[in-house]
Specification:
Number of strands: 8
Shape: globular
Number of domains: 1
Bound molecules: pyridoxine-5'-phosphate
Oligomer: single chain
Structural class: alpha/beta
Low-confidence stretches: none
CATH superfamily: Aldolase class I
Strand order of the largest sheet: 1-2-3-4-5-6-7-8
Largest sheet: 8 strands, parallel, barrel
Mean pLDDT: 96
Number of helices: 11
Order of helices and strands: EHHEHEHEHEHEHHEHEHH
Helix content: 40-55%
């Protein structure tokens, strides 16, 4: 079964546009669970541009599904994660200027910091996923340093405009997936996945979790979040071979 993690940051982005109390990402998490989400994903960014500390605390208290906290390799955020104890943290790169997480974490470059965070999280019983580009060496080093899973960045696939670009991006994801499975990692995928492009990804046997935000929240504006999640979950069930 392919788990669906719903990223609710985008709900907080709308709220922060007016610095008000609505829409509340905590409500979004509840609605997503009612729609069949297997997990709730949020990113507590260092600049707090969308999810706030209060959100993180309430999500940790109220979410029943798998709670996945995306975080940078930053000691103050790691401290918060250790207090909140989500089921999983996903280590991501973070740049202040970016609109969203643009590339995967360079685990080769940040190996030392990643090892320290993985050790701390494991001591607290928190699983660790690495958000990486689908590059064999990044998968290998993630396994070497003890990560439980990798989340392969699907942005290149999502942004592909030609058949050739699409096939190339899918091939890279497939190689990353196979390498991860051979190294006993759980392999997830995320970024830019939509109702239209999810088919070929979900059809690849081996992925265990997709984390999807923007497309689901965008559809929710028109059909409601519960139905938007249900529709995506139906697509995963339809395309996923096992
Ligand atoms: N996975 C990670 C690690 C991300 O940073 C994001 C974006 O916040 C997502 C998944 C979801 O991406 P999207 O909003 O494009 O579906």
């Amino acid at each position: 079964m392919l788990r669906l993690g719903v990223n609710i940051d985008h709900v907080a982005t709308v709220r922060q546009a007016r610095m008000t109390v609505e829409p509340d990402p905590i409500w979004a998490a509840a609605e997503a669970e009612l729609g069949g989400a297997d997990g709730i994903t949020f990113h507590l960014r260092e600049d707090r541009r969308h999810i706030q500390d209060r959100d993180a605390v309430l999500l940790a208290e109220t979410v029943n599904a798998k709670l996945n906290m995306e975080m940078a390799l930053a000691a103050p955020i790691a401290k918060i994660a250790l207090e909140l104890k989500p089921d999983q943290v996903c280590l991501v790169p973070e740049k202040r200027q970016e609109v969203t997480t643009e590339g995967g974490l360079d685990v080769l470059k940040h190996r030392k910091a990643a090892v320290q965070i993985i050790k701390k999280m494991h001591t607290a019983g928190i699983e660790v996923s690495m958000f990486i580009d689908p590059v064999i060496d990044q998968v290998k080093v993630s396994a070497e340093i003890g990560a439980d899973s990798v989340e392969l960045h699907t942005g290149k696939y999502a942004n592909a405009r030609t058949q050739r670009q699409t096939s190339g991006a899918l091939r890279a994801l497939e190689k990353g997936l196979i390498t991860g499975l051979e190294l006993d990692l759980d392999v997830h995928a995320g970024h830019g996945i939509t109702y239209h492009n999810v088919g070929p990804l979900a059809s690849m046997p081996g992925f265990s979790e997709f984390n999807i935000g923007h497309s689901i929240i965008a559809r929710a504006v028109f059909v409601g979040l519960r139905d938007a999640v249900r529709e995506m979950k139906e697509l995963l069930d339809k395309f996923c071979p096992i």
